[in-house]
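Re: that backbone. Tokens:
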């Protein structure tokens, strides 16, 4: 080869990239983000948001740049600026405090979480002892338990808790669940509760939301086809963490949760020919595209889509923002 002959281009190894559909934003997340954006447009900055509006660092950072100020407690917000409650829901004491301070407030609680709040109140009014299947400390669990007087709801986190729970009156009990749990793990706990308490009052429709169920079903099928499953989402996002766990349980040799393309570790790809890619319900699609671009830059990539379901649900915005 003489000095003028160009070096041969290295041949890039082929990889199949299978995209789960549906993935990413659900209707509740989309609505919550729009509420913050519209509130900033209508009232100007700053608009205060109690707790991260959704559990995704990129979303939070973008909204901060628009003029949202994220706080953990209402006491951190001034009386004269609007405040938005996050998609996860809040205890009843929070809107009560906002009202007493005559604040403008917008509730971005996902309507499917609000449904669980309504169920909790109905069971309480009927005098039932209530168990909530969920994760301690998660804002959705805090919000649901905070709908009722302290001590009215017992939290069950795993099968051991479900086996150990002893109500005062076994004939008058009810269960609720967090909306973002593992469908399969929850089914095991519900089955045990039904076995122990045959008359236990259950939700009219599963509390685990359609988006969580659809994304978990899609990742199960991904795991059957791909050796490596990648989930785009933040580590504090319950539904994103569950997707990674479901992928591993469903047969993927390896699964990782990444914030964005910067989280990729190329050693994961050694010996891998098919990669599955999905995103949690609070992860924007541009982050998924960033991962596709990074993989495509390194490998000869074919992209295919695995469609599990079509989602057409949308939720209305509060009247205050549409009037």
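Recovered sequence:
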């Amino acid at each position: 080869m003489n000095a003028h002959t160009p070096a041969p281009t290295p041949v890039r190894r082929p990889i199949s990239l299978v995209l789960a559909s549906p993935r990413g934003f659900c209707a509740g997340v989309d609505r919550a983000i729009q509420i913050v954006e519209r509130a900033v447009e209508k009232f100007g900055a700053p608009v205060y948001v109690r707790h991260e509006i959704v559990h995704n660092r990129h979303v939070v950072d973008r909204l901060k740049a628009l003029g949202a100020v994220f706080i953990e407690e209402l006491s951190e917000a001034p009386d004269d600026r609007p405040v938005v409650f996050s998609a996860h829901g809040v205890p009843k004491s929070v809107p009560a405090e906002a009202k007493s301070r005559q604040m403008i407030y917008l509730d971005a609680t996902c309507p499917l979480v609000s449904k669980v709040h309504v169920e909790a109140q109905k069971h309480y009014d009927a005098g039932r002892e209530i168990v909530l299947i969920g994760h301690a400390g998660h804002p959705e669990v805090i919000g649901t338990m905070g709908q009722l007087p302290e001590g009215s709801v017992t939290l069950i986190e795993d099968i051991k808790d479900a086996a150990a729970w002893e109500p005062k009156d076994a004939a008058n009990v009810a269960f609720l669940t967090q909306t973002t749990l593992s469908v399969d793990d929850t089914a095991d706990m519900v089955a045990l509760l039904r076995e122990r308490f045959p008359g236990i009052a259950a939700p009219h429709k599963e509390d685990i939301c359609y988006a969580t169920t659809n994304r978990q079903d899609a990742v199960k099928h991904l795991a059957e086809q791909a050796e490596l499953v990648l989930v785009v989402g933040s580590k504090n996002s319950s539904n994103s963490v569950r997707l990674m766990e479901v992928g591993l349980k469903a047969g993927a040799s390896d699964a990782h949760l990444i914030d964005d393309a910067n989280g990729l570790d190329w050693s994961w790809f050694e010996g891998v020919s098919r990669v599955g890619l999905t995103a949690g319900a609070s992860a924007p699609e541009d982050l998924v595209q960033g991962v596709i671009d990074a993989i495509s830059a390194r490998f000869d990539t074919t992209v295919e889509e695995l469609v599990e379901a079509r989602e057409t649900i949308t939720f209305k915005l509060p009247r205050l923002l549409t009037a």
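The chain has eleven helices and twelve strands. The mean pLDDT is 94.
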